[in-house]
């Protein structure tokens, strides 16, 4: 029984140690390098959501190229509005 409690405590300790390392690394990666987003609607047809299908496409947004001003002709640029209108 004592060994089971020791294993449980080691497991919980290792979990929290990994958690407190993984969360900041993941948040930094999603903020600085890239993130995944869904594209819905007809505004990006025919490049995304071809054929008018109802399913949404999943894209990888590259934050690194924008920070280095490495946008070229033909690239798709995603903008997010912080203002909600009524």
Descriptive overview:
Keywords: Hydrolase, Membrane, Protease, Transmembrane, Transmembrane helix. Helix content is 42%, strand content 14%. The protein has helices at residues 2-32, 63-67; strands at residues 34-39, 57-62. The longest helix is centred in the N-terminal third of the chain and has 31 residues, at 2-32. It starts with a helix and ends in a 19-residue tail after the last helix.
Largest sheet: 2 strands, antiparallel
Helix share, percent? 40-55%
Please compute the radius of gyration using only Cα atoms.
21 Å
Proportion of residues in extended strands: 5-15%
End-to-end C-alpha gap: 61 Å
How many strand segments?
2
Instruction: Categorize the overall geometry.
Output: elongated
Poorly predicted regions are none
Structural class: alpha+beta
Strand order of the largest sheet: 1-2
| Count, helices | 2
Calculate the mean pLDDT score and round it.
76
Q: Spell out the helices and strands N to C.
A: HEEH
SSE layout:
Layout (H helix, E strand, L loop, with lengths): L1 H31 L1 E6 L17 E6 H5 L19
Subcellular location: Membrane
Protein name: Mitochondrial inner membrane protease subunit 2
Keywords: Hydrolase, Membrane, Protease, Transmembrane, Transmembrane helix
Briefly summarize what is shown.
The protein is of the alpha+beta class. The chain has two helices and two strands. Helix content is 42%, strand content 14%.
Key words describing this protein structure:
86 residues; elongated; two-stranded antiparallel sheet; 42% helix; single chain
């Amino acid at each position: 029984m004592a060994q089971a409690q020791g294993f449980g405590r080691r497991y919980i300790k290792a979990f929290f140690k990994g958690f407190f390392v993984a969360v900041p690394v993941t948040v930094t990666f999603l903020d600085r390098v890239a993130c995944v987003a869904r594209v819905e609607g007809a505004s990006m047809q025919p490049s995304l959501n071809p054929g008018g299908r109802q399913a949404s496409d999943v894209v990888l947004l590259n934050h690194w190229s924008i920070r280095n001003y490495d946008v070229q002709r033909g690239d798709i640029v995603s903008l997010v509005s912080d203002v909600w209108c009524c």
